[in-house]
Prior knowledge:
The complex is a heterotrimer. Chain A has one domain (30-177): Glutaredoxin, CATH 3.40.30.10. Chain A is built from five helices and seven strands; from the N terminus they run αβββαβαβαββα. Chain A has helices spanning 2-24, 77-91, 107-115, 129-133, 161-177, and strands at residues 44-45, 57-58, 67-72, 96-101, 121-125, 141-145, 151-156. In chain A, the strands form two sheets. A five-stranded mixed sheet of chain A has the order 5-4-3-6-7. In chain A, strands 1-2 form a two-stranded antiparallel sheet. Chain A is elongated. Chain B is of the alpha+beta class. Helices cover 62% and strands 11% of the residues of chain B. Chain B has helices at residues 2-29, 33-62, 69-74, 81-86, 92-113, 119-143, 167-196, 201-232, 243-268, 272-295, 308-332, 347-379, 387-405, 418-424, 426-443, 448-472, 479-487, 491-516, 618-636, 639-643; strands at residues 518-524, 529-532, 535-546, 551-561, 567-575, 580-584, 586-588, 593-602, 608-616. Chain B is built from 20 helices and nine strands. The model of chain B has no long low-confidence stretch (mean pLDDT 88). The chains are: A alpha/beta, B alpha+beta, C mainly alpha. Chains in contact: A-B, A-C, B-C. At the B-C interface, helix 12, helix 13, strand 1 and strand 8 of B face helix 1 and helix 5 of C.
Amino acid sequence: MRRIAFIAPVLIFLIIAGALAFGLGRDPKILPSMLIGKPLPAFNLPDVRTGTGGKGLASSNFTGEPALLNVFASWCASCRIEHPFLMRLSREGVPIHGLNWRDKGDAGARWLDRFGDPYDRVGYDPTGRTGIDLGVTGAPETFVIDRHGTVRYRHVGPIDAQVWTETLAPLMQQLRAEP
Amino acid sequence: MSAEIGHFALILALVVALIQSVVTFWGASRADSALMGVGRAAALLQLIFVALAFGCLAWGYATLDFSVELVARHSHTTQPLAYRLAATWGSHEGSMVLWVLILALHGAALSVFGNSLRATFLSRVLGVQGLLGAAFLGFSLLTSNPFARLFPTPLEGTELNPLLQDPGLISHPPLLYLGYVGFSVAFAFAVAALIEGRVDAAWARWVRPWVLAAWTALTLGIALGSHWAYYELGWGGWWFWDPVENASLMPWLMGTALLHSAQVLEKRGALISWTLLLAILTFSLSLIGTFLVRSGVLNSVHAFAVDPARGAYVLAFCVIATGSALTLYAWRAPGMRTGAMFAPLSKEAGVTLNNLILAVVTFVVFIGTFFPVFYELMTGGAITVGPPYFNLIFVPLFSLLLCLVGFGPLLHWKRDRVRQVLARLRWPLGLAAVALIAGTAAFGLAKILAAFGFALGVWLIAAGALLLVRRWDIGQRPAEVTWRLVRTTPVAIWAVALAHTGLGVTTVGVTAMAGFESSKVLRMGQGDQVEFAGRTLVLQSLAPVTGPNYQADRAVFAIVQGRGPATLISERRFYPSSRNQTTEAAIGPSLIGNLYISVGELDESGKAVIRLWSHPFVGWIWGGAVLMALGGLVSLSDRRLRLGAPQPSKRRIPDPVMPVPEAAE
Amino acid sequence: MSAGRQCSQWLAGIKASSARIMLLAVLTLGAVAGPAFAVLPEEQLADPVLEARARKLSQELRCVVCQNQTIDDSDAPLAADLRGLLRERLEAGDTDAQARAYLVERYGDFVLLKPPIRPGTIILWFGPLALLLAGGVGVFLYWRGRSAAPTLSPAPLDADEQRRLDALIKETRPS
């Protein structure tokens, strides 16, 4: 019995060290999304280009085929970095919708006019409330939504070729194959 | 050129450290005094090389040598010299050099002042120190080279974060490191003792000054960090249960237990296993703290540059060092027990309880800090353990400990009686009860916890003072006798009285802040008045100003009614070269509380958001810590410690396992 | 830090550590605009009771983009949004638990500074007490085993034994 008291410290320590070693591999700042496996929260946003009778973006737009929802803003430097890749995806026919998050006035619209618009639809969320409903913590973030409107994945940070080929493209393919 | 010298010096130090490790263990196992002498010399040589490296780094900062990458990243031509020099340890790489320097200093000190230690024992201790030094030097050279050059040499550096350009940077890290690294000596002592298979009262006497010095430095370092955060960050918090803060608290808690446990070991030969385990764990917690701060495993406002590769190295090092020490402990410690007995009510029992509760409380801080990592491992989800958890779990347990602390010094060794103890402590108990009742009456039942906190503080202060009162026999003897007693008071009694009273003072401060802090926020313009905390303040002027390396919006307040300084100035600064914003708060200090004012940015209408706080008794928090540290310093000045362990007697007397208990407390 | 970091880093810029400042400065370009400062007077609710509840709740909710700050303390714009949202929910009549649940639904348990009590957090909440009790029991059992001899000093001798002792001493004393 007493022996246990002496051996316990070493054993406990090694277990703790193992757990910490595991911890080294992850980034504590990236939060897992609460929406995975749940339907997209209901929202109905006006178009980012006001006054042109634009289409706007609503949660109902996400049924029918798998699509991406990309959160972006004109003040976000990383969004600028991922933008060319999104343009490429858009040319390849990948359905992408945009959420202009916490931008003032027409800053988002002007940003799209200047650099190009890869989105089928763009919603305007100046207050950030829809972003909060989605659990957004910053830009850029990209959600993958299946044909039934259920959120299947969230990627934090800009999308590049590696992220696309390794994670998102296979997922999209799988979702298209699903009934 | 100096960077190359420094780099080479570090490499040489590593080589010497490795030689030191080998030679010392080899010499000790063969009881070869020549080899052991080489070991001791190696420790000195290591210090010389590390000091040289440190000097070269500091020189680079002093001369603004921007070709050294570290200097370019943390200093600027407009930066004052004091902060340029302090920036030597203001970065991860530089702080590692400071760590190694202090480690080498301790090794050299052991080598020079360790004559009263058994030669083989000293040799093994130096061996462990050598291994630790080699590991950290290897870490520094392999992953965090402080002397990396930058080509092309920039004309101007990036200045040190303005939050760090503060007297706090000059003293806080060195004190903390003296604490962390100082406990490595206790660790080395424990490992050496386990290797040799013997622990006795002499061991406890040898280890005590090192533990005291480390503990005192750590106490001051933590208090300084808290005070610095208080006045620097602009919203008057003094403890945030941030992972890095917890990383410094855990060794302090274990170190406190170690300190008391070593006393029992010295006086009575009891608690051997506890003391050895505590010696190992305290330094291990220092190592884990180092890991935590530099690895990016947890979110923290204080974290250094985050690099999982460095984290992996530190973790591996920690596993090896702590793992082998604990394995040695599991193997050897069971055979090293004594038969020293003591009754359930005795000073030894008190220290045992002290150890137990401090261990549990350390566990609380540990699990609270690292739980997010474990939780994610278990469930994949993210979770936060914040101040509400610590306040609910840590505070009650620590309060339980504080209740017991008052009794401790006044318990008899080996055996005591409940009735006698209560009689001895009737005054502190009575005063505490009065304080509790008075507090409840004054603050109401809603704030009964605050009343309890104050009562705890009164209890500790009275119990600490009681030690002196009993010693001086105040009121029982004529004045000259009392005066003689005062002058000849043993250092140990002063030390304990100071330290435990200091704890009580801190308790009062913490209780007051937790229970009675108040704040107000409003938008004010020039000429506006505000009433707060029993004073009326008028905002005399609110305008932009320019400083040596910053632009600021400055608010000048004057107190129209109520006590406090004539003017209070708060600034919201913007540092263009690093694009940083800081808030310099206006603090109106007093013995019973601070008035704390922060100004926000000027808006378009020329007004600014003004935040006012009343911080009752906040200074007592750090004042108490200073008293505790003073107690530690006073204890260090004890001549008995410097006389060292008794030499073996010339007469043939059996080696006592249990030393004769001393009569005095 | 790679480019694969979010723009949200700039939100944590104000109170971050020295080593991050450079990169944050790059991402912060132009973003630290406006008098962002935790709990502005304008954010405060008119009803003091509700406002007190809001402040208390804010101090229990974590700013999800910062390094270990509450939304009450943080200057980050998202923290300001969350403060406003919290006050909206309270004005709409939510209880404290409902307001908390609203945010947990969106950001997970991470947003709570006080971890919820559930099977995964048992060691956190009950571990310390269990350890204390276990330690106490351990110490108690140890003492019980040790002091099987209840007295630490031997019982006094009776007259007969005392005579025997005296005789023995007389015998063995060197002359």
